[in-house]
Specification:
The complex is a heterodimer of chains A (249) and B (359). Chain A is α/β, with parallel strands linked by helices. Chain A has ten helices and seven strands. Chain B folds into two domains: 203 residues, no CATH class; 105 residues. The chains are: A alpha/beta (249), B alpha+beta (359). The complex binds iron/sulfur cluster (SF4) (5 copies).
Chain lengths: 249, 359
Amino acid sequence: MRVGVFKFSSCDGCQLAFFDVLEELLKSREIQIEFFLEAQSINRFDTFDVSFVEGSVSTEEEEERIRQIRESSRYLVSIGACAVSGGIQSIRNFLDFETLKNEVYNYVDLHNSLPTSRPISDYVKVNYEVRGCPINAFELVEIVTSIILNKSLTVNLNPVCVECKAKGNICILVLGSPCLGPITASGCGALCPSFKRGCYGCFGPLRGSNFEGLKQIFKERGWDFQESILSSFNSYNKNFRDEVWKLGS
Amino acid sequence: MFYIIDVKGLESIYGSLKETFHVISPTLKDGILLYSEDVDFNSLPFGYTQMEGPSFYQLLQSSGRYFTYLRPSNTLKYFLRSPNMKLLTVKRSNGELSFEYHINHRKLAFFDVRRCDLKALQTLDNVYLNDRFPDPYYRSLRENMFLVGVDCQTASDVCFCHCMGVYLEDSYGADIFITELDGRFLVTALSKKGVELVEKLHIKKASVEDIQKAKEKREGLLSTFKKYLDTKDLKENLYRNIEHPYWEEIGKRCLSCTNCTQVCPTCFCFDIKEVNSIELDLSERVVSWDSCFNQTFATVHKFNIRDTITSRYRQWLMHKMAYWQDQFGEFGCVGCGRCITWCPAKIDIQVETAKLREL
Ligand code: SF4
Ligand code: SF4
Ligand code: SF4
Ligand code: SF4
Ligand code: SF4
């Protein structure tokens, strides 16, 4: 199985997850890592059975590169909040780009960003999304194993609350902390509520959630729902665009 | 057999259980009462009272009495069918397969189970230990178990067990039962195991007056309930309104978070997954809690037959209050009120059921 790991606009954190499970992955004799700039000095860009893509599309060069990767790959998997939703850098999509650029950079001419930072799926077909900021490394192993076995991948459609209760946690939303667990995809093992901190949504919105319902609960308790979503690293996710920001397509 | 003890006697019962069993008891964790293993007698939450309401929980330290608190926020289910449980491991080596079934033979004792939870245990037993498909994993834990029942003294604002077939004299499955009198406790030994345990401790037999006093205490509880649900012809009335637009109104509020099904002592739905190793030499079968609020729950061939939150909420309430009667001949709800306390959207199953039956 020929594997590629690619980076776009991102912090590299999700690629690091590969290092956590590299030993496990290499137990399989079927895996050849063909392209992974962060991990090896000899890389070959040819065709891939599966390409893992970290980061959002944020420059013209990236727009072009993601198309090439798509054309060369049987499966394309986006990994992490940047690739899946646009990442923290997509907050700029909600602001005036020119003003922002002038405020942040001294040499605006050297700056070649696009006015928006977008998820991979805005450009090309994505076969599977791995959520999280950063991702849960064990999900990578599960994906690779499933591809080897030709087993269908189960798309996770449960909210964080399911894992939270399975851990035996008490609901801190009921006890008075803002928690995005009910509208966030599970997969992290309810990390934050297990430490008595509300989920801030790093695994991104769960499609089919009752966003309006949670917004009402936040409102009653005096919390800012939209602000919480803006700082979730996933504010530009398609589900939020459609259901919360109502941006259309 | 009736006995009378003081708090020292209570401690010796607890101590003697610990000699043979993994004892599970309520204890205080981050301000909430939860069943937990390896609690010592001194960390039982004696004297606390529990205030509960829709999406509201508070503990208060109270009088010098003992069993003033109520059922913990988690349930027996958490220990009898834990949320993620390995059922089977299959290994392959040299072309041979080997199978290992993970049946758990631990001996569990629950010290302090209230009547709603005993009824819930009966409901779960009817699901797992029926004649046709008994579950060996559940049965093994269940057969080795010791149960100490305890009487409640004051109901909380969410309790409505008195309407859901939980009667004052019911003590399903309990080996001994404890009723607090003034500073003393009436112990009723109900099973052979129960009598053996108590006899070993050489404690005093109760007098007729003590037994009478305990009966009065027990009856005193009835006047403290604030909730009431009329269950006469409940099923028929709910079926009549199964297409009522009011369900949509609840669907707008419900987050489909699954909290209610997960804290419910009787919800038993599960999912089974096969987890394979990357070297393809090992496969583990894991059973985990599922919920009818999950989007994959009613998905068949990629088509979810309950695609709206409204239809999923309706499944939950109707199963508890109506379908369960067709399926098992009883309610799936024992009125413990946990789903009311822990619903972030303040949806109250007793209020909604009462409303839906009258529409
Ligand atoms: S704490 Fe958050 S994630 Fe956990 S059950 Fe409550 S709302 Fe859900
Ligand atoms: S609980 Fe929420 S914010 Fe925390 S790790 Fe999980 S998804 Fe991310
Ligand atoms: S439905 Fe609610 S009140 Fe009824 S048994 Fe379950 S948790 Fe308790
Ligand atoms: S209410 Fe839902 S989760 Fe509970 S037993 Fe019924 S179908 Fe299962
Ligand atoms: S009724 Fe309440 S606890 Fe149950 S799924 Fe809906 S919001 Fe969650």
